[in-house]
Every structure is written in C-alpha cells, then in structure tokens.
Predict the structure.
Amino acid sequence: MTKHIRLEVAVEADAEQMRDLMIAVERDETEKWFDHGERPFIPGCASIDMQKYHMWDEKYYKIISEESLAGVLLISHTGREHARIDRLYINPSFQNKGIGAKALELIELMYPMVKIWTLDTIQKSTRNHYFYEKYGYEKIGEDENERYYRKTIDDLNIEAPGYHLGKDYSHHNYRYCDMQYIDVYDVNMGNSRFTNMNIENSIYQNSNLSRSRFTNINMSKSVIGDANLNKIEICHVSLANAYIHDTNLGFQETKMPLTIKRCELMESKIIDSNLQGLSINNCNLEGMTIDGILVTDLLKAYGRANKSIEK
C-alpha cells in the first residue's frame, strides 16, 4: 500500500477536511493514552483557521494514500540544514500500514539539504517513541509531557569552510560584521545584545525569546513562530501592516495578561479573539466599533440609560 503514497502541499480548500482528520486523531490519542479527563496538547486541532495558518509557507502537507487523505505532515524549515517536524498524524483508520514511515522517507527526499531533523512527541505515547526510534531518531531530552528527538544525516560535512561546531564564542563582540545568510541551530545565545541590526526577512522558529529586548532593529518581513515571548518588551516599534494571530497568554494555569500602553492602533482590527475581561482605559475611541456598532454610540446610549434610571 505504501507505494501509492504521496505528499501534496495543502491549500485552503483542504482546511476543513484536515480539521476533521485532526479531531479524529485527537480523539484517538485521548482514548489510547490519556485518562482522568486529560487530553493531548495539539494546539488548534479543532480550528479551520489554525489549519489555514499552518499553510502560510507551503510546508503543510497532505499525506495521500489511494487518493484519500491519510494524514498530515507539517515541517518548519529555515532554508538551510535544519528542519523540524511539527506535526505528523495519521488518520486512525489508516494506521499500522506503513504510511507514517513512508511519509518520513518522502519528506527527507524532498529536502535533501536538511541534515538535522528534530521533533517532539507526547510522553505517554509509547507507540510514537518506538516508531521514531525505529526510523533513526535519537532521544535527546524529555520532560513530564514530551520526549524530544533528533535525527542526524550521516553525510554531515562538519569540515566544510565556514562550518562551526562546538565552539565557545561567549563574551565575544561583533562589530561591522557581515553575517548574512547564517544558519544557527541549537545555540545558546542567552543574555546576548543586538543593537542597530538589520535582520529583515529573518525566521525564528521553536525559539525561547522570553525576557528579550529588541532595540533599533529592522525586523520587517520577519516571522516569529512557535516561540516563547513571555515577559518580552516591545517599545518604540513600527507595527505597520503587522499580522498577529493564533497567540495566547500562556498555559491555562499560568495565564498572564497582556498590557498595551500608549500605542497607535488606528484602523486596526481584532477578529475572532477572546476578549473576556479586557479593559480599555483613557483611550481615544473615535471611530472604534464592536460588531459594526460605534463604541461612542454605545457609551452615549449607556449614559442616557443611566440618567433615565436615576430619574
């Protein structure tokens, strides 16, 4: 059966079908590995918009078997030697047929430049652990909820010019340096400082940027995805035409509110978002609408209602 498997780039017309598949996968994973009301952490698995979001750079793939949607495969690829498998899920009715293994083989053939593949999988799924280890993935870490895996392709040429492996550059200064098109993987850059930088069109994936501060930086056309931005400070920044979506305020037990202060947000939109408990104070609300109704009109109606009650 595996000889008839192929990968196709997902498009928006596929979003509903892929959402339905993810709901079936989440239900199956819950029944197999979880109890006491717990569920696997698959962000946005029941959201059509989340399926569309994953398609932004055309690296969200349908796994097609016998012309049917058998699974999904999502990768993050920076354009150089490292890629991450963010999602690999097989429809429960197509499992145990070698489809997942064939999908791994096909994605490696599609990205021959990638020498390091990484992924994580839920700690409770022993089936997943066996599967990835069988196909060359080595466990490199774990915590209470996840196991972390890496596969290194054997022909990695670490002696190539410009290749730096295992070097200690801590406490170095870099000034007037040309560092275009560098690829940085598994590097500790904690407590570093970046000032007066051009990092236009950069990509940050699966990165911890908490407590960071970016000053006088050109980050236009950059993408920050799957990142930890807890307690980050963003100030004196132009966000013209920015697109902020599918974000949260932390895990359920540690949610912390977002504060927006002295920002110019004219003509901006907040769509399909949870604004429970949102507070707006001392702001210019001229022209602001909620579901098409002017907020100034709502406040006037509220004032008239209060006066009527007082009388």
Q: What stands out?
A: The longest strand covers residues 68-77. The mean pLDDT is 85. The longest helix spans residues 15-33.
